[in-house]
């Protein structure tokens, strides 16, 4: 299985039956966000995101309205890019303290890219996963995610299970799922909401598309533990891969010039029942 949406070869069938309909949910709006308090709305480098308002009231009571408002199978990519839940830092990250946390996760994207480009420009240098690991540690770009793909007909149920694992079983971390792609998806989302909900349609769904769920990590032990939780508590028994954010930053996608796999860890061996990658 390919591990990143940019690695997937998505062939759009131009003869697709355009009468296919989906009961799209209404697009997000800042007014609804403020009045209901169910979600927050952000537009940043990751696109338009609807984020579960986790810190207000009882999260277990408020999660059901959020599920019902934003089922991934009926949320059009014309109105948002990601549906997200952020449950905060892991115990490991909290244990570091503010100063050490800031040093370890300084997120110096510019410095990392500059050094990587300088190394690769020289030529004759073999780019390896270990080299990228070292650069990621040096510049504090240590986040990443397990990539879980699902078809629209099963994504809503799987999304609920994965959220339960992250939010309620573990009680920390972040998880997001992509909105459903449509054929006439605009190149960018410059506004949070459509001008009018009346008569709005979410576009024609892309045939054979997959949704991707990204489940973040902070260290290797948590990578392993989270994979086990996804397998045994959410039913993700198929092979998935883990992609560090540094891979995305440096353009390590399928068919990259360095011959690297586009994911860092792979659950290739479950014979003993105690390995996740």
From TrEMBL:
Name of this protein: Uncharacterized protein
Provenance organism: Leucocoprinus leucothites
Stated family: Belongs to the UPF0696 family.
Domain of life, source organism: Eukaryota
PANTHER family: UPF0696 PROTEIN C11ORF68
InterPro entries listed in its UniProt record: Bles03, TIF_eIF4e-like
